[in-house]
Amino acid sequence: MKIKDIGGEFALIDRLADLVALNHAQVVQGIGDDAAVIRTAPEPAPYLLVTTDLLVEGRHFKSTWASAHQIGFKASECNVSDIAAMGGTAQWMFVSLALPEDTEVTWVEKLYQGIMASCRQHGTALLGGDTTQGPTTTINIALLGSVLPVHLCLRSQARPGDRLMVTGCLGGSAAGLALLISGRKPSDYLLKKHLEPRCRMDVAGLIAPLANAMIDISDGLGAEVHHICTQSKVGAEIDAKKVPLQDEVIQAGRMIGVDPMQWALGGGEDFELLFSISPQNLPTLLQSGVDCYEIGRVTNQAGRALLIDADGHATPLTGGYNHFG
Ligand code: ADP
Ligand code: MG
User: Same domain for 203 and 116?
Assistant: First the structure.
């Protein structure tokens, strides 16, 4: 049986999670969230956060489209995004590389300049890694961070009645990629969204004390809503007309005949935050000036994630990138 036969990446991770099932007093959250959460000292001391991401040339980036600086910057931002999604701050980074024999030294140096540009923004220190030769350029970043226990936002903490919010417009990265694939030149905005995305650490600290569940949008809104529903044992309703799309994403959709909602729901790599918040906390959040949009609500219909169209018709919420799926 191959990975795709069991449903892809997420089904595989579920099986692996069963194999490593552990019940350790220090583990607040193991496999199943944006980062692992470890209690290293009694509360209210901060929890340790650990996340890791693997990027493979041809799969996650193409050196023909992205500069080494952009690839490094994005590799760091997608890890910081996972720490932001827990409500935490990023601290210690390790970078491991597999590089083909003919790799230019200057390319690797520029990759590191990109990583460091992101690290400077988030106050992250790069402390080590590993380097090996391999058939395809492969970049693995592991990032440690911390979060106050009262600020921790798990995927499993959404409650029926919560509002579902996103921190910015969706679909930009996928629209930029679709234009690149079609051979058209994306606008500067879409190109940046795809090649130099910025994670939302800038607002995560304001949201975390007020939100219940939080996740970053790396695989598309559809997939992330499903993750929250599964982990929180709740349902969700997303209002299609409230999902924020930039004009340039809508224009790109017209240009190549794609419904831009497909990019928002299934494209991924927007690195905005999706979170649930109680109606009581919503006014405080909005007063704080965080740019965010209400896109739906959490229901008590466990596992039922619905997309409500402009006419009020409900269909199952689909979309989401799934490696092997
Ligand atoms: P994200 O998109 O936020 O980076 P992923 O979908 O990659 O999250 O991973 C979801 C969860 O599965 C995380 O807790 C991650 O640590 C875990 N995970 C992914 N791949 C593996 C693996 N090969 N072994 C163990 N845990 C894994
Ligand atoms: Mg994530």
Answer: no
Per-position pLDDT tens, the chain of length 325: 999 999 998 899 999 998 988 778 899 999 999 999 999 999 999 999 999 999 999 999 999 999 999 999 999 999 999 999 999 999 999 999 999 999 999 999 999 999 999 999 999 999 999 999 999 999 999 999 999 999 999 999 999 999 999 999 999 999 999 999 999 999 999 999 999 999 999 999 999 999 999 999 999 999 999 999 999 999 999 999 999 999 999 999 999 999 999 999 998 899 999 999 999 999 999 999 998 999 999 999 998 999 999 899 999 998 766 665 5
CATH number, domain containing residue 250? 3.90.650.10
Evaluate: CB of 224 within 6 angstroms of ligand 1.
no
**β-sheet bridge partners, residue 262:** none
β-bridge mates for residue 275, sequence order? 165, 214
**Residue range of the domain that includes 140:** 3-150
Using a 6 Å cutoff on CB, does residue 54 contact ligand 1? no
Whole-model pTM: value is: 0.96
Q: Give yes or no for a contact between 232 and 153, defined as CB atoms under 8 angstroms apart.
A: no
C-alpha 219 – ligand 2 centre gap (Å):
8
Domains identified in the chain, total number: 2
Residue 324 within a domain: no
Last residue of a domain, one of 116, 150, 184: 150
115's enclosing H/E stretch is helix 105-122
Residue 25, phi-psi category: left (phi > 0), alpha (psi -120 to 50), beta (remainder): alpha
